[in-house]
Amino acid sequence: MKILITGVSGLLGNELAKLLCEDKTNSVYGLSRSAAKLNFPNYTHITVDLNTNGFTDSLPKDINAIIHLAQSEKFRDFPASAEEIFNVNTLSTLKLLDFGRTIGIKRFIYASSGGVYGNKDVGFTEESPIMGNGDLGFYLSSKLCAEILADNYSEFFHVVQLRFFFMYGELQNKGMLIPRLLNSVVNKIPITLAGENGIVINPVYIGDAAQAVCKALLIDHSDKINVAGTENISLKQIATTIGSKVKIDPIFEHSKNEAKNLIGDITKMKKMLHVPQTTFEKGIEKLIDHGKK
User: Fold this and answer.
1) Which segments of the chain have a pLDDT < 70?
2) Alpha-carbon gap, residue 213 to 273, rounded angstroms
3) The whole model's pTM is what?
4) CATH number for the 2-170+203-230+264-277 domain, one of 3.40.50.720, 3.40.5.10, 3.30.70.3270, 3.40.30.10?
């Protein structure tokens, strides 16, 4: 299979490229805004900015599948970077979808977010209503818009949309949730919890997330699937687990805000893609060990 991956220098992109290149029958093309130093067999890097016009002109025309992982690094910078967020998260998706149609790809995998569901105490299934209003925020609105656009291309190729819930791993941006909590525990920075325990989530380790994406390439129909971990754990439990590994007691502060849980039901993931193998405790150990290198 000839596969194009956008956002290859990111957490999931890097792990996925490595995994796909282990199969010598694959040819993998990786896109990122900067030159990624990936030394995998059967791998070709393409430096391109998805925030520019005509970026598809640089792409190979003989690929079978597109895996669109890229998202704007300025996702928190609204409204100042609204146009760039939209261009990278939404407009680039449309351009890649139409590029795929013109060259005759067979599959398009889109990395969306479990955040499009909103928040509630029980796990969201793929049939749960989507929060299609201003309460989503601009970033999640741009991801949901891309999902809607992708739906329209399912008559041309299989479109599999993966909604990720709190992915984490060794190469993750330090500003994301799990690395932030690790930094707070290590540096004895107070962690604010909504209520007694904070929100409950089911984070997924990067290795399991990458395995799920690989299996999505084999699906012979269009679908939407949650990608998350097997353990529902509160922010307090996460910080306490981290603390036990680094031998530092977390410092907690409590707010009167209601804990807005975000849990993905992974029944469909386990049946169609992959059963997560890495426990949160083991994933945190890997994260800490990597930081010591």
Assistant:
1) 36, 132-134, 293
2) 8
3) 0.94
4) 3.40.50.720
